[in-house]
Amino acid sequence: AVLRRHGGQRAALVQILREVQALTHWLPREVLAAVADGVGLTPAIVEGVAGFYRFFHLQPVGRVHLLFSDNVTDRHAGSRHLVARLCERLGVVPDQVSADGAVSVGLTSCTGLGDQGPAALVNQHQVLTRLDDARIDDLAMRLLAGELPTAWPSAWHQVMPQIRQAGPLLAAPPLLGESLHALLARGADATLAELATSGLRGRGGAGFDTARKWALCRAAPVPEGGTRVVVCNADEGEPGTFKDRVLLSEQADAVVEGMTVAAHVLGARHGFVYLRGEYRFLLEHLESVLARRRAAGLLGPGILGVEGFDFDIAIHLGAGAYVCGEESALIESLEGKRGVPRIRPPFPVEQGYQGQPTVVNNVETFAAAAHIARQGGVWWAGLGVPGSAGTKIHSVSGDCARPGVYEFPFGVTVAEILAAAGARDTQMVQVGGPSGLALGVGEFDRRIAFDDVPSAGAFMVFDATRDPFEVAHGFAEFFAHESCGFCTPCRVGTELVKRRFDKLARGHGSVFDERELRALESLLHGTTHCGLGATATNPLRDTLQRFPTAYARRLQGPRFVPGFDLDAELAPARRVTGRDDAGAHLPQEG
Ligand code: SF4
């Protein structure tokens, strides 16, 4: 039935695998073979795709599979203690299925709930927020009693918007066609000109000029029988970011209206929202927004009664792969493939989804574009500072009294955001997530702007009790895990960085290791295929520079220290063989 619903299309492979797994809990070989048969691919290709995404299980998991968010701010909030407590209560080992097959518990990357963690995913379908000892104990009892997640208290699944500071994007009433009326009154050319006047730049991190991107796509030839395509990148995978979650739950009409404006400007008929798998709980809400807009003539054929203004949107769920936030990897995933970034050129605006010119913009970018279409470019350009027009939404989490989302005009200082969030005794702020910038005391008067401190939206606060080395170590683990493996410097380099961090954390570090870390840092910056590898060592670079003592206290001295105790490793063999040659005890210093 799943295959039939998707017409056996290869492009729907990730969706098909998601839906099949929801029925079977995991994906045994025979199931993958049946899917392969249904979509006309070899089992090896289908297994290769399934193996790429973290949320597809090629080994059994429990009928209730719990994945705890493992971002560093979740760890600081006690997530690992909660995992240990739950496993102890259930009598299970992390990452192993209970003897009766009922439950399994594991860790996953940031789930986008850093403002209300510790949090967990339940069968990648529901979320659990604000977990604490009492909730974990109650959860364990219910699981041991065989209670299904559908019977758990609804408060456990509650996700609050936590809008602490609203500006023109977050405070606006729902857009129900106002931008589309303005667009039609002004015309596509003039609307594109307004966008150029606004100075809007992409909110996903790279900050590319939005009007320029749309103009390039508009100018690209469309293959025969094809169309241009509009894609909303809602794969908000950067640890510590959750502002797109809030926009999608509170301002979905603005996002969809922005996509529809783009469609008319570009001459696009098809659109996608690529929704990160962790936000599966938003799917029904988004589907209802699309349905309501279709019924109101704001989506579908002949929008607002205008002949030829045909545009509709499908929602595509991701399956847990950070790299799919990169636009060409996202397009590969939309086409049902492994999310490996493409070699460019051609750029997606020339040849994107199925070879068609495609614009990929962030959720916040589309929301801003909708308001610009209505209120004009001069209005937006009047907000913010030169070169960084408009407002920016920040996801504030970590050591502060008021975590949540804050919308400020560009130009706000880091100190102003810290004060608004009630942060005290702050030692470090990670702006823009692990791939962004770590700032220390003395830098908090810097401004959020493309030419000072750019940000994709994460704002993680660490007070003086936190260890910057441990923060950077957590991010190193994240990047090693999320590297897609396509290019060697990133695949090997991120793992080597992580292992070097591990070694220092175990107390086996020396100046030699610090030198190696610096060498890896400069290597990764210049040699990787995509931005993930190029930015993977930013936390290392920033913390080494700003918090050298956090590293220095882990270094034993200038001489090489092995990462393990050779004699301890050889002891079992010596015991078994009864041989313990004094001459075989090599000195461990190099
Ligand atoms: Fe994949 Fe990393 Fe290379 Fe990007 S840099 S293509 S994530 S291996």
What's this model, at a glance?
With 590 residues, the protein is an alpha/beta fold.
Your description of this structure?
- The chain is of the alpha/beta class and 590 residues long.
- It has 5 domains: 2-52, Arc Repressor Mutant, subunit A; 64-157, Glutaredoxin (3-Layer(aba) Sandwich), CATH 3.40.30; 164-381, Rossmann fold; 388-466, Ubiquitin-like (UB roll), CATH 3.10.20.600; 469-552, de novo design (two linked rop proteins) (Up-down Bundle), CATH 1.20.1440.
- It contains 24 helices and 16 strands.
- The protein has helices at 2-5, 13-24, 29-39, 43-52, 72-76, 79-90, 133-144, 178-186, 188-198, 210-219, 243-250, 252-266, 283-295, 327-334, 363-375, 377-381, 414-420, 468-482, 488-505, 511-527, 531-535, 538-546, 548-552, 566-577; strands spanning 64-69, 103-108, 120-122, 126-128, 163-165, 228-234, 268-275, 312-317, 358-362, 384-385, 388-389, 391-398, 404-409, 426-431, 437-440, 458-463.
- The strands form 4 sheets. A 6-stranded mixed β-sheet has the order 5-13-12-16-14-15. A 4-stranded mixed β-sheet has the order 2-1-3-4, with helices on one face.
- Strand 14 and strand 15 (437-440) form a beta hairpin.
- Helix 12 packs across helix 15 (363-375) and helix 18 (468-482) runs antiparallel to helix 19.
- The longest helix is centred in the last third of the chain and has 18 residues, at 488-505.
- The radius of gyration is 25 Å and the shape is globular.
- The N and C termini lie far apart (63 Å).
- The model has no long low-confidence stretch (mean pLDDT 95).
- Bound molecules: iron/sulfur cluster.
- The site of iron/sulfur cluster (SF4) has 14 residues, from helix 19 and helix 21.
